[in-house]
Specification:
Length: 347
Amino acid sequence: MYSFVRPLLFSLDPERAHDLALSQLDKLHSLGLTRLVAPAVKPCKVKLWNIEFANPVGMAAGLDKDGTHIDALGALGFGFLEIGTTTPKPQEGNPKPRLFRLKQHAAIINRMGFNNLGVNALLQNVDRSRYKGVLGINIGKNKDTPNEKAFDDYRYCLERVYPAAHYVTVNISSPNTQGLRELQNADELHRLLSRLRDTQEKLSAQHRKHTPVLVKIAPDLSDSQLESMAMILAASRVDGVIATNTTVDRLPVQGHIHAKEAGGLSGKPLYGRSTQVLRHLRANLPSTIPVIGVGGIHSGADAVGKIAAGAALVQLYTGFIYHGAPLIRDCVEAIRRRREMASPRSS
């Protein structure tokens, strides 16, 4: 059904189409008609951080920033959802237009700027939802918070989402909040993560549960930067890494009418670099720190490529926009086949 609906959606302004698609998905879900757009997905269980995932294919952060559509998205077959990025205070984000399709490249450029209703509104939506699957919450800092006070914003969000989340992702890699990526520099990263680790330990004792804290990184890092980062991530004992966020590189889409738009590029052009970063990071991190692969997955083969590069789980965003819910099933089935082929045959 999505193949018939997509031309209509793609004829609209991208941000309007995004909002319309999610509101219509909510209506289908309320009527029990989700299967019109989402084929059934068979279980393909994965256990990570002592959490059981129905399958290894999740929804990346950014699609549902405020957790407004959790139930409908959760019915599509994703093995887990990640909502956010959320910030302490509500903020409108960057001026419109701020979302651009590059259809011939199966890509998107966005400069949304953490537009969201604030962490308290997100938690109200989580409380109202009936979703029983694995839920990650992605946290960030407000635009007007200077980097030297960034920890205060991350701590504020972590303290509030900790009881509600299965895992929490610290977003320090969006290119759309000025200066945010500077938090990936060695000194800033070490200082931020060590303080967040202390906060996590206090919250674990307070709530009597360990909620994993992950870090989402950018693809625009050199090998030496990644190696330095891996040492800091290991020393800070983070629970996991998400590789990667969007890229500021425009070489893969050079010449396109939107190529010079500011923001992060996602979709097919990101696949190669994001997978290269994933592979390099996996090689330099301890085996105890899992990596989630995201960036440019548009087919089951792409998902398998991320797993082969060292990902324990994968996430979809732009590919989901272009291909709809059938992509979830295709990725799960491809990973299942790979798993079966890798398993030793019984005699």
